[in-house]
């Protein structure tokens, strides 16, 4: 019988022999029970209590002044500020990505001058705080009172006074666009470098032209690396436009500030701005999700459906999103 | 080294040299490949086989020497005592007549099998999509992959991917096919299906240059065998002679190691 065998097998230090151990039939008849993991229940309980407290205080602390928040939510000046925030973000990101694509191409080119200039620009812009850049452009008139178009070191054909040229909005547009250009250049460069060189060699061997190879073979395969980082940059820039309030550009935040500077309802108006930022960010996140799905063609990581993504995170102790295979 | 009975060789390589930094990977290589023949390039890794192959469609730019395919200089234009490198568009046109199959397949991962096959015929040859699709289906049938049109490359085995890669090269109706170790990345049981496709192509009279370590395949299919060592051709001739009675010491050592 089995007990005879277990008596004779020399026990390993990890599995000391147990006298009177149950036999095979007993073990086969036993029910399997998972480990208890009490830590899960404790931490979940603590977090649920904290969440309940947050929700409770949102509704019971009268100093949030939700009726005031509601009355100002669609206020004309707030909506105009919201519009400025939206189109400034759109213009800055669009311009920045056009410049950033050029900078990435320059950095990846075989021309050492182009490579160096691109590297220097990215280095400079990333080294200077965005707020400082913004102030520099706003103060451009004191650095260069006149800008002129003409030959380098030669005669000028036309001249402009910068004091009239660089208002707050233009200064914000230029400063933020250059910032996006530098950061997007690195994102795009990283995406392009993530495409294996063999893909380009195969396209060339088939006789595909350089532009066709870039557009049809490189770009689609670079996008899975570019989109998530770009979503990050776009959302970051949406919120970063709020620094234009320091140079009196009436964006969403500054419009709220203008109101609370008069009636001192600071918290409710900050909440108005906050809620609008949350709404915009949520919309952008949803857009990013669908863009990522679009570019997941042929890859192993085809995202789960949008509903499944949320359902997977909801059940506390159910089967959450499965961990990816170790590869 | 040309197959018997041919007139002008389809591929003429003369004085081809190439260095990567201080390392000389090709050293004044001369080689003729007869139309309709199969030439295998043998040699240890680092002997210059792959570089030689990549020079034939100008994926590598040689330091000296030239390659001609069907009488046309590859990658260069002769004028007043100089060879001027051709603009990218003309190089692309030349490459479109020379098919290439890579060790790592390099199928376009974001495109389906069918899209992989019709991309170049539509973009480069200007074929209609319908006729390109029709041709692609015929080619997939030829490599034994009918019905896998809508699969993505990562859903296929290595052997299937390599057969798709061969079909993709054939879709351009090349005058010459280059194979860069087409079976070296495959599991042993998948090598046979790829070699069978190449064998069938040889039977149709396709001109091919094949870098390979498959000695049995070389002996059976090749019309000519070339052995490279340190960037030089040290042995060339009919496979029976090169493989079974190598005169050069390095060739003897290599062949006794792989056989």
**Residue share in helices of chain B?**
25-40%
Q: What order do the SSEs of chain B take from the amino end to the carboxyl end, as H and E?
A: EEEHEEEEHEHHHEHEHEEHH
Mean pLDDT of chain A comes to 86
Rg of chain B, Cα atoms, Å: 18 Å
List the secondary-structure elements of chain A in sequence, H or E: HHHHHHHHEEHHHHHHH
Number of strands of chain B: 12
Shape of chain B: globular
Major sheet summary line of chain A: 2 strands, antiparallel
Question: Residue-averaged pLDDT of chain B, rounded?
Answer: 93
Determine the number of helices of chain A (DSSP H or I, runs of at least 4 residues).
15
Return residue spans of chain B where pLDDT drops below 50 for at least 5 consecutive residues: 1-6
User: In order across it, which strands form the biggest sheet of chain B?
Assistant: 8-9-10-3-11-12
Strand order of the largest sheet of chain A: 1-2
- Summing up helix and strand content along with how strands pair, one would put the structural category of chain A as mainly alpha
């Amino acid at each position: 019988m089995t007990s005879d065998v277990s008596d004779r097998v020399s026990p390993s230090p990890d599995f000391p022999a147990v006298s009177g151990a149950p036999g095979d039939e007993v073990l086969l008849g036993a029910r399997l029970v998972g480990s208890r993991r009490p830590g899960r229940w404790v931490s979940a309980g603590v977090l649920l209590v904290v969440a309940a407290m947050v929700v409770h205080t949102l509704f019971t602390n009268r100093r949030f002044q939700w009726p005031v928040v509601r009355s100002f939510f669609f206020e004309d000046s707030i909506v105009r500020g919201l519009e400025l925030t939206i189109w400034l973000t759109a213009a800055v990101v669009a311009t920045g990505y056009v410049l950033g694509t050029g900078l990435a191409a320059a950095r990846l080119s075989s021309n050492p001058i182009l490579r160096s200039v691109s590297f220097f620009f990215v280095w400079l812009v990333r080294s200077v705080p965005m707020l400082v850049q913004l102030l520099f452009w706003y103060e451009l008139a004191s650095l260069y009172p006149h800008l002129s178009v003409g030959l380098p070191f030669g005669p000028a054909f036309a001249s402009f006074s910068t004091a009239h040229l660089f208002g707050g909005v233009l200064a914000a547009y230029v400063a933020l666009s250059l910032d996006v250009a530098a950061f997007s250049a690195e994102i795009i460069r990283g995406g392009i470098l993530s495409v294996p060189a063999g893909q380009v060699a195969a396209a060339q061997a088939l006789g595909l032209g350089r532009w066709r190879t870039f557009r049809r073979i490189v770009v689609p395969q670079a996008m899975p690396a570019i989109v998530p980082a770009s979503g990050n940059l776009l959302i970051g820039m949406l919120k970063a436009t709020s620094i234009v309030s320091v140079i009196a550009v009436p964006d969403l935040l500054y419009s709220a500030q203008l109101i609370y500077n008069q009636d001192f309802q600071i918290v409710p108006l900050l909440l108005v701005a906050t809620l609008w930022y949350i709404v915009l960010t949520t919309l952008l996140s949803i857009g990013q999700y669908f863009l990522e799905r679009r570019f997941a063609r042929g890859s192993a990581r085809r995202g789960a459906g949008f509903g499944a993504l949320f359902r997977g995170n909801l059940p506390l102790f159910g089967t959450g999103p499965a961990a990816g295979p170790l590869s | 080294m040309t197959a018997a009975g041919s007139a002008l060789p389809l591929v003429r390589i003369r004085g081809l040299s190439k260095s990567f930094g201080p390392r000389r990977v090709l050293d004044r290589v001369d080689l003729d490949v007869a139309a309709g023949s199969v030439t295998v390039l043998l040699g240890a890794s680092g002997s210059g086989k792959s570089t030689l192959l990549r020079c034939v469609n100008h994926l590598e730019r040689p330091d000296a020497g030239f390659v001609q395919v069907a009488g046309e200089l590859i990658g260069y234009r002769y004028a007043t005592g100089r060879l001027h490198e051709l603009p990218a568009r003309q190089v692309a046109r030349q490459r479109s007549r020379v098919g290439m199959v890579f060790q790592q397949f390099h199928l376009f991962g974001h495109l389906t099998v069918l899209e992989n096959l019709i991309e170049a015929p539509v973009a480069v040859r200007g074929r209609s999509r319908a006729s390109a699709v029709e041709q692609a289906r015929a080619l997939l049938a030829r490599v034994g992959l009918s019905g896998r049109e809508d699969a993505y490359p990562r859903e296929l085995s290595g052997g299937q991917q390599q057969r798709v890669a061969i079909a993709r090269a054939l879709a351009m109706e090349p005058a010459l096919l280059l194979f860069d170790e087409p079976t070296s990345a495959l599991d042993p049981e998948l090598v046979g299906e790829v070699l069978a496709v190449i064998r069938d192509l040889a039977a149709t009279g396709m001109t091919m240059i094949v870098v390979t370590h498959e000695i049995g395949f070389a002996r059976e299919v090749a019309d000519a065998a070339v052995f490279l060592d340190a960037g030089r051709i040290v042995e060339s001739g009919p496979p029976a002679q090169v493989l079974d009675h190598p005169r050069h010491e390095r060739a003897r050592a290599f062949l006794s190691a792989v056989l």
